[in-house]
Every structure is written in structure tokens, then in C-alpha cells.
């Protein structure tokens, strides 16, 4: 059921059709819906249940403009570098998919200020012992919950992190203390296009059973 609100209990439909929606209408999002996605975010797990999060909901037009400018300036630097993919050899299929991502990411960079709601997901040190790859493990489950809840309501989102390259500027616009990290900048709005399955590897290609490298034998 692409493009329409699905039954809220149909979790697999929601998971299977949630993907980066970067083309969003400027139409306002009811506050009730914003609160609902934040409720979902705050149900997420976190180390020691410390819940080290704050959600900064930005609707003010001037602030969205400033955030959009920061995001776009970082995007322009990184787009030139191939958005992190230039170093890899891509198959023709991957190259085509990469092109699509780049076009849609360019659109978002050009229109971030027009998105009605920008949610800056903030986190702060909480005494967690997680380092390295696990460093964000107490904040990104909340981000995913937020995005899934948005999809259930028919709202589009995209997980973006490029703004972090100019995080101090973002802090200045929003009055965020230096001790607080901005884990994600999530545009939230009504999608122009349809929801649908993202391009993902089959489970059997990425799953081993009982031993590294051991694929399932039927
Ligand atoms: C850690 C992380 C950082 C990301 N940062 C950005 C970003 O800064 N800008 C952007 O447009 N998309 C960003 N994305 C979205 C990915 O490009 C997207 O999830 C991926 O291409 C899959 O897209 P799909 O869900 O539409 O299939 C990020 C995703 C993750 C998980």
C-alpha cells in the first residue's frame, strides 16, 4: 500500500516501506503528529535506560533557513567528493542507485529550508561504556523509532548527519550547549512521492548461522 497511511499495527509493512524520503512538501505537519513521532522516539532502548536524548523541533522559518544553509554548504563540499562513494568501484547497478541517491540528496540540500519541521536529535554523555562503533548506540534506536512512526503516519523523513561537519554553527543557531552532540538532523514532512521498498540485500546474503561464513543449507 505505497503512499497511504497503513494500519498502525502492521509493523512489517511499515518497516518494509520506510526509506529516505527527501522530497517533502512545505505543508505544515499537525503538532499532534510531531508529538506522536517523538513519543515513539522516546520509547527506544538506551544503555542503562539513561535516555540520553533531547529533541529540538525546529519550525521557525528563519532558523530552518539558517540550518538549510549550513546543511547545503556541507553538502556542496561532500557532493563534490562523490558523497563518500567515489573511492569505491561500483557495479553498473550500484552506480545507478548511487546516482538516484545523489539526485535526491541534492534536492534535499536545495530545499531543506522549505521542509516544515526539522528535528535535531541531540545526545549527551551519559557515562556509557560504549565506544567506537557502539558510540551512537543509545541514540540511533530512537532515531529509527521516530522514522518508523513517521512512516506509519504517512510522513516522510531522512536520516541526515552531514550537518555534524559544521555542528558548532548548528549549536549557535539553536543555543545548543557545547557538551551536547547533534546526532541527526531529520527533515519531517508530507512526501511528494510514494513510500516503497528500499534497495537492500537479501537476508540470506548477510546472515551466517552458528559460525562466521556459514550460510543456511536447505
Ligand atoms: C548514518 C547515516 C547518515 C546519513 N546521512 C545522510 C545525510 O547526511 N544526507 C542524506 O541525504 N542522507 C543521509 N543518510 C541516508 C542514506 O543515504 C539512506 O539511508 C540510504 O541511501 C538508503 O536509502 P533508502 O532508505 O531510500 O533506500 C544517512 C543514513 C545513515 C544511516
Draw up the topology in text.
Elements: H1 11-17, H2 31-41, E1 53-58, H3 61-80, H4 92-111, E2 117-123, H5 140-152, E3 156-157, H6 167-174, E4 181-189
The protein binds flavin mononucleotide.
Residues 19-20, 22, 101, 105, 108, 158-162, 198-199 line the site of flavin mononucleotide.
What's a quick, concise take on this entry?
With 218 residues, this protein is α+β, with helices and mostly antiparallel strands. The protein is built from six helices and four strands, in the order ααβααβαβαβ.
Overview of the molecule:
With 218 residues, the chain is α+β, with helices and mostly antiparallel strands. The protein has a single domain (11-84, 93-196), classed as NADH Oxidase (3-Layer(aba) Sandwich). The chain has helices at residues 11-17, 31-41, 61-80, 92-111, 140-152, 167-174, and strands at residues 53-58, 117-123, 156-157, 181-189. Strands 1-2-4-3 form a four-stranded antiparallel β-sheet, sandwiched between helices. It binds flavin mononucleotide (FMN). Residues 19-20, 22, 101, 105, 108, 158-162, 198-199 line the site of flavin mononucleotide (FMN).
Amino acid at each position: 500500500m505505497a503512499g497511504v497511511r497503513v494500519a498502525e499495527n502492521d509493523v512489517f509493512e511499515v518497516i518494509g516501506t520506510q526509506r529516505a524520503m527527501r522530497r517533502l512538501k512545505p505543508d505544515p505537519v499537525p503538532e499532534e503528529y510531531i508529538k506522536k513521532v517523538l513519543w515513539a522516539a522516546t520509547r527506544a532502548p538506551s544503555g542503562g535506560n539513561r535516555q540520553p536524548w533531547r529533541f529540538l523541533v525546529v519550525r521557525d522559518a528563519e532558523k530552518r533557513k539558517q540550518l538549510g544553509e549550513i546543511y547545503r554548504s556541507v553538502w556542496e563540499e561532500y557532493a563534490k567528493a562523490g558523497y563518500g562513494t567515489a573511492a569505491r568501484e561500483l557495479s553498473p547497478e550500484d552506480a545507478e542507485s548511487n546516482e538516484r541517491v545523489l539526485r535526491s540528496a541534492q534536492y534535499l540540500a536545495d530545499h531543506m529550508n522549505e521542509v516544515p519541521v526539522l528535528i535535531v536529535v541531540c545526545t549527551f554523555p551519559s557515562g556509557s561504556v560504549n565506544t567506537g562503533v557502539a558510540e551512537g548506540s543509545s541514540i540511533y534506536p530512537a532515531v529509527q523509532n521516530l522514522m518508523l512512526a513517521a512512516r506509519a503516519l504517512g510522513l516522510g523523513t531522512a536520516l541526515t548527519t552531514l550537518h555534524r561537519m559544521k555542528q558548532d554553527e548548528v549549536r549557535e543557531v539553536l543555543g545548543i550547549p557545547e557538551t551536547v552532540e547533534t546526532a541527526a538532523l531529520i527533515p519531517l514532512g508530507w512526501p511528494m512521492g510514494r513510500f516503497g521498498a528500499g534497495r537492500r540485500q537479501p537476508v540470506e546474503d548477510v546472515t551466517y548461522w552458528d559460525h562466521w561464513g556459514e550460510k543456511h543449507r536447505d
